[in-house]
Amino acid sequence: MSLLNPDLVVLGGGVGAGAADQLLPRIRQIVRACAQPVSARRVRIVRSRLGSDAGLLGVAHEVFQRCGNGAGPEEERRREG
């Protein structure tokens, strides 16, 4: 926490979907106790709104970014080269 000094930490996947409500208070308490005071005050620790679908949605986004324009592999290679 103190090394990277993030503004936001998002709990996703199985943790975010299932156990975040039980874990978040304890995680926040540990961060306040162990992180540098400036980092501990600044960071927000939240549960992902996407829950366990985050990985799936990320893959779908990547597929549409690469292939969603209707171009096949040959067209993509032509654009890159």
What is the compact description of this entry?
The chain has 4 helices and 2 strands.
Walk me through the structure.
By secondary structure, the protein is mainly alpha-helical. The protein has one domain (about 10-80). It is built from 4 helices and 2 strands; from the N terminus they run E-H-H-E-H-H. It has helices at about 15-35, 35-40, 55-65, 75-80, and strands at about 10, 45. The longest helix is centred in the N-terminal third of the chain and has 22 residues, at about 15-35.
What descriptive keywords fit this protein?
2 strands, two-stranded parallel ribbon, 81 residues, mainly alpha
Overall body shape: elongated
Low-confidence stretches: none
Please give the alpha-carbon distance between the first and last residues: 41 Å
Number of strands: 2
Radius of gyration: 19 Å
Biggest β-sheet: strands ordered side by side in the sheet: 1-2
Question: Largest beta sheet, briefly?
Answer: 2 strands, parallel
Structural class by SSE content: mainly alpha
* SSE series: EHHEHH
Counting structural domains, the number is 1
The percentage of residues in β strands lies in 5-15%
Mean pLDDT: 81
Q: Output the number of helix runs.
A: 4
